[in-house]
Amino acid sequence: MTPFQSLNTRLQAFAVLSERGPLGIEDLATEIEHRGGFLRCGLESLRKALNRGPYRTNLQGEVALDPDHRDFWYDEVRVKEKLSPAVPRPVAPPLSEAPLTAAELERYAPPPALSQRKRLMLCLDAFGPLELGALPEPALRFLGGEPDVKRSLAGRDLPLALEGTRLVAQPHYLWRELRLEVRAALRAAMERESEREALRARRQEVQEQKEQTRAAFESLRRSVIRILADGDELAGSILHLNEMSFQDFQPKDREHLLRSLEGLDIVIGLEPRLLYETLGIDAGPRKFVDLTPPFKERKLNRAGRRVHFGVSQALAMTVSSSQPLGDLQKLAEYREQGQWGKFFRRTQSDLKSLYQYYRYGVEHNYVRLRWGFLDELVGVSWNLGGEPGIYDILHRAHEHGTSVDVVLGGTPGFEDRFSRARPFWPGKFGIGWVEGTFGDAEWKEVLLLPDITAARPSLEARLVSALS
Questions:
Q1: The whole model's pTM is what?
Q2: How far apart are CA 131 and CA 27, in angstroms?
Q3: Could you report the per-residue pLDDT of 418-464, keeping only the tens digit for each?
Q4: Per-residue pLDDT at 468 exceeds 70
Q5: Can you name the residues that pair with 223 across neighbouring β-strands?
Q6: Which tens digits make up the pLDDT trace of 26-55?
Q7: Distances (CA, A) of 424 to 212, 361, 446, 455, 458
Q8: 381-410 residues labelled b (16+ CB within 10 A) or e (exposed)
Q9: How far is the C-alpha of 324 from the C-alpha of 314, rounded, in Å?
Q10: Is residue 275 within 8 Å of 290, Cβ to Cβ?
Q11: How far apart are alpha carbons 399 and 431 in whole angstroms?
Q12: CB atoms within 10 A of CB 462
């Protein structure tokens, strides 16, 4: 079986589309079969495989990869692992059977249960015969002080012998296993230290990459959009996150709207890529964050009963608003009647809800599905700037002994997200929760991370970070 054939159909499609770009589904199936893939039920097998995952159909009806999908990086890693040639691990040289050296004994950390007799044997192998009462300083450190030689010499056929005041090794004793055991432990310790050093270097590299990503992210033009189309007419609002300001567009402002959309680097909204394709704007290098909820229905029982969620209903499960998005029919009436004040108040309200939904997903890496007895967390990947999440902020505060401003319960205010914040000192972490104290309270409280709707380092923590 070739590496390509070892992939499932979904990943085979990913590999082909990564190389060839968008393809019609028939051409994609032909290419997969040409490379050795097997579609048991023909095109139906391929359609089923592409039903979920980082795939979308463009306006030309071709299957294309969606780099903004939350599973894109996961499928990309799996494909690379399968198709990349395996790198053979280097074969370690055999361990030496020569007598131990003083340097090796200095580096060796014996287990606590190692007997004093074995410690003396190691010293004899490394330093030669030992003059009792005048042991070398390294030997004394290794032994933990002057040894009880009399006790160590109790028994028969011992590897040790006493000649006057000198402790010597019996020549007939086989030292091979003892030497190999010590050197194997030393090699393992060196490998662990090398791995720890590589991990530290990797973490430092990741941290530097995050800082570079954040710096680049802050310089990009980022906006949340709510644009509604009626034929060729466009109207709606844009929330520019760099300035946290709104910009409204009537149908007569179409050219101005198109120029504004072309000037964005990161576009956040409901199916923003589709809007750009519909308007004929080249996606180019810009990034899209699709806030369309990552769930549309859920199975309720074994009988197969399902509940379907609309977009506004799905947003309301995370954003504390009974109507996070305006009724499209009502917006159409405002538009027809030229009531632009009411129209833009509603689109701006929609943008506020979308922004709060976006911030929750960025800070938690998931959104909530709460309906009746259902309470699920559904993952999203909207954090393009590598911003610290809720857990990161809490954990860093715990490490530095500082507090965090947290907002619990309802969605934070739009103008001031931390107007209801309370200082919290985290102390203990678990899966999905953190224990700590509020202010001067003596008792500890457990907070569920999904219930924390906003968090930031306290002023004290920010000052410490600035000075360090």
A1: 0.72
A2: 84
A3: 999 999 999 999 989 999 999 777 789 999 999 999 999 987 655 65
A4: no
A5: 240, 267
A6: 999 999 999 888 888 888 888 888 887 888
A7: 30, 22, 11, 10, 9
A8: bbbbbbbbbbbebbbbbbeeebbbbbbbee
A9: 9
A10: no
A11: 18
A12: 12
